[in-house]
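Sanity check

After download, print the first record. It should look like this:
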Amino acid sequence: MSDIRIAIMGAGGRMGRALIQQVTATDGCTLAGGTDAAHHPDMGRDLGDIAGLGHLGVPLTDDPLTLVTKSDALIDFAVPQATVNHAALAAQARIVHVIGTTGTSADDDAKLKAAARHATIVRAGNFSLGVNLVAALTQKVAQTLGDEFDIEIVEMHHRHKVDAPSGTAMMFGEAAADGRGVSLSDMADRGRDGQTGARKTGAIGFASLRGGSVVGDHSVIFAGDKERVVLSHVAEDRAIFAHGAVTAARWGIGKGPGLFSMADVLGLGNGL
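Expected structure tokens:
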């Protein structure tokens, strides 16, 4: 069997560099190429040089269409508009599209869902095994504990992150909402400042911290009157996300069209 040809969309960013390293280190995979915005300062540079691996003979490009035609799978950590465009290309080519992009709008989400009618899309707020286990536990705990336990989700990332709450925090929020049988859009409280009044019963709160070089810290807090249950995950290296994304790309080969999650890839099912 020939190697799986994987392209990195958003290859010039922090996750892009980690993905280049992971793809080149994974048996059975080969780096098809990488794209980023035309104004990226590394445009035209070799991907191996960008990732600190030495020359690979694969330049960073701003031409996703050509790259898609020679790829079996895309791993995408780009900006929302670019990811939506990539999804349309993946749908036309009938290939695997692994999406880790966060900060998408409802309209973006609808377009990604439509693309999944033709492409194999694996989408996750986070690709680590530990995070997905915490999400499954969050759903179970939320299902077990009643509204007398308030849910708060706290996340911290590096100073350069541009969206909030993080995709992982939203993933935990969705898991909590699913556990309680409610809609996150109805129950989310994403910002408090000034005279906000008493906490709404059943609300799922979010707090976002930014600073330093933090890769990703997340806690889901279930706060009762006399006790708290805290589920936490600390990411120490982006390599865990890159490993999970490449695992998802390999899993998607031959699966056929559909919108899948990392829970599908890891066989976690709905909850524990």
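If your output differs, re-run the checksum step. Summary of this record's structure: DSSP finds ten helices and twelve strands in the chain.
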